[in-house]
Structures are given as structure tokens and as C-alpha cells.
TrEMBL record:
Record's protein name: Gfo/Idh/MocA family oxidoreductase
Single Gene Ontology MF annotation: nucleotide binding
Annotated keywords: Oxidoreductase
InterPro entries (UniProt xref): Gfo/Idh/MocA-like_OxRdtase_N, Gfo/Idh/MocA_domain, GFO_IDH_MocA-like_dom, NAD(P)-bd_dom_sf
Domain GFO/IDH/MocA-like oxidoreductase positions: 129-247
Keyword Oxidoreductase recorded: yes
Family: Belongs to the Gfo/Idh/MocA family.
Pfam families in the record: GFO_IDH_MocA (PF01408), GFO_IDH_MocA_C3 (PF22725)
Superkingdom of the source species: Bacteria
Residues covered by the Gfo/Idh/MocA-like oxidoreductase N-terminal domain: 2-115
Length: 332
């Protein structure tokens, strides 16, 4: 039985706490935060035996096996490093960090202490993505030719500007899925061959990128276009185009549900095929089970389709380059 410390009491921590309670291999041991009223309310809601004000107590608690970091992106690297120094496995929310310098600090910390780490791209732990990889590899698409993805959610009012805006709050989803598709169909090395061109709008409210678009070309000629915004809407889409047909997500790719998750295969010549994956649990539950499985097998990182450490670094490199181009061009 793994004992968890939850750092943070926001919306996402509630989703993870519920998932921990659903698992027979994990239990909530302590919750930590800086707001005493919020921490104690969270403790009561989930009947957690312990709490701490501030994070050091939870990070150094000898009874804690796994630390979940449900806090803004800019503190992920420091808290991960503290957890690793105390020998804790860490599940830290996406995005990995907000800069590549922070990302390298995080990597150094977990590798030097030989501790488990996984970035909380929870959707990739859902069995939908094992099925996706099977479809990508069964030959029906032919050669990969293009990828299109977008994620829009009007959430700017509730996000912390220190988290660096839409790219790190939402753009990480289509970017990480594009990364998985390219890696699965074109090999481990192809993602690094990209060239990209990004544009964006800067928020009048906090100076971060609020709307962003990017076009990328990989070394084998595959093209990708992604769009992310946290300033309007509530919409999603992701399409994978091959030489023999198109695979698209009908349901939200980044929020798999306990019910039917729906892919649709549309060959250029043939009948449309609807593909459903249903497990009875959401992506947060499967993320907890993924952590349990990897720790039981003595691993220090996840296995695909969940992100390995190098996968998270490659995704961050794409996001930071995209952000830099948006900022530079917005200033012109």
C-alpha cells in the first residue's frame, strides 16, 4: 500500500485525491499547502489522517512513499528536487516546468537520487492510448503525413500567471500527443528533427501567451499544426493523417472518461470504423495505477505511452521554443 502526500488543494488535487481513494493499492496519508483553512477543509473532505502547513513536513515525512505536486508549473522543479532528496517517488503535474533551465535542474535532481518521477500528463495512462498505439502500428494509416490538434478552454481567470500561460496549461496536451504519435510511427529520434514556426497573442491581463499557433515540419516531411488558447471557448480536436486515411478523436483526447472514449478511423477508400475504449475509470485513476505498477517493478520512470523523463524534456523543449517565437513575433 503506497502512502501519498498531496501538495496543493486546488481543482486538480481534488481529482487526484479521488483517484487515490479509488485504488486498492494506495492511500492518502497527508495533505500540504500554505492556506490553513484550505488544507484543513481538504483534509476533512477526504478524511486524510495528517496535514501540514507548508510543504517541508510532507516532503520529509518518513511514512510518505509518493508525493503528488498539484501546484503551479514554476515550483515543480524545486519541490521535485526536495522530494527526490528525501527519497520520495514524485508525480508532478504538467507542464514539467516553465523553462528548460528548470527542466534540467529537475532531471539532475531525480537522476542523482535515483528516484521515480513522472510528469502528470494523466491522459496518457488511460488504456485508450495503448489502443491508439496499436492502431498507429497496425499499418492501416500507411505513412504518417500530417497531424492537427487544438485545445481551447476559457480558464484564464483561474490560472496562475507564474505558470506562463496557455502553452504550459493547455498547449502541453496537443504537443505531448503529437510527440507520442511521431515517436510511435516514425521512431525515437524523429521528434528532434523538427523545425517550427510559432505565433501568438499576449494577454492584456498578465503578459503571458493567451492564444498560440504553431506549424512544425519533421525531417521526414511530416507536417503538424497545433493551436492552444485559454482566453475563449471550450473545444478540442486531434487528427492524424496517413497516406491511407485519417484517424481522429471524437471525444476529448485529453480527458478520457469512465464511459466510452471514441476514435474514428476514416480510410480514403473503405468504410468508416468507430473504435471505443471503456474501462469504468477515468484517466486520473489509471495514472495512479500506472505509478503503483512502475514502483512495484522497481522502475524510476514510467513506460510508454505515459511520459518517460526524456519524453517530458523533449515536450518542454518544443513548448519553450514555441513560446519564444510567440513572444518575439508579438513584440514586432
Amino acid at each position: 500500500m503506497l502512502r501519498w502526500a498531496v501538495l496543493g488543494t486546488g481543482f486538480i488535487s481534488n481529482a487526484v485525491a479521488t483517484a487515490i481513494q479509488q485504488s486498492d493499492g494506495s492511500e492518502l496519508w497527508t495533505v500540504a499547502g500554505r492556506n490553513p483553512d484550505a488544507v484543513q477543509a481538504f483534509q476533512r473532505q477526504y478524511q486524510i489522517p495528517n496535514h501540514s502547513i507548508g510543504y517541508e513536513g510532507a516532503l520529509s515525512d518518513p511514512n510518505v512513499d509518493v508525493v503528488y505536486i498539484g501546484l503551479p508549473n514554476h515550483v515543480h522543479h524545486t519541490l521535485t528536487a526536495q522530494g527526490a532528496a528525501n527519497g520520495k517517488a514524485v508525480l508532478s503535474e504538467k507542464s514539467l516546468t516553465t523553462t528548460m533551465d528548470q527542466a534540467h535542474q529537475l532531471v539532475t535532481a531525480v537522476q542523482s537520487h535515483n528516484t521515480f518521477f513522472v510528469e502528470g500528463l494523466m491522459y496518457l495512462a488511460h488504456p485508450l492510448y495503448q489502443r491508439l498505439q496499436e492502431v498507429l502500428l497496425d499499418g492501416r494509416l500507411g505513412e504518417l503525413r500530417a497531424i492537427q490538434g487544438f485545445y481551447a478552454a476559457d480558464i484564464w481567470q483561474v490560472t496562475n500567471p507564474l505558470g506562463r500561460g496557455t502553452l504550459y496549461n493547455l498547449g502541453c496536451y496537443p504537443t505531448s500527443l503529437m510527440h507520442l504519435v511521431v515517436q510511435t510511427m516514425c521512431g525515437e529520434e524523429m521528434f528532434a528533427t523538427r523545425r517550427l514556426s510559432g505565433f501568438g497573442n499576449v494577454s492584456d491581463h498578465d503578459g503571458t501567451i493567451c492564444d498560440a499557433a504553431v506549424t512544425a515540419r519533421f525531417g521526414n516531411g511530416v507536417l503538424a499544426s497545433l493551436h492552444s488558447t485559454d482566453s475563449y471557448g471550450m473545444a478540442h480536436g486531434f487528427t492524424i493523417s496517413g497516406s491511407k486515411g485519417v484517424l481522429r478523436f471524437v471525444t476529448n483526447p485529453w480527458l478520457p472518461v469512465p464511459g466510452a472514449n471514441h476514435l474514428q478511423w476514416c480510410p480514403y477508400d473503405g468504410e468508416v470504423e468507430d473504435i471505443y475504449v471503456e474501462t469504468g475509470y477515468d484517466a486520473f485513476y489509471h495514472q495512479i495505477k500506472m505509478v503503483e505498477q512502475n514502483l512495484s517493478q522497481g522502475r524510476t520512470e514510467a513506460q510508454r505511452p505515459s511520459p518517460r523523463l526524456q519524453d517530458s524534456v523533449e515536450i518542454m523543449a518544443f513548448l519553450t521554443e514555441w513560446e519564444a517565437q510567440c513572444l518575439n513575433r508579438a513584440a514586432d
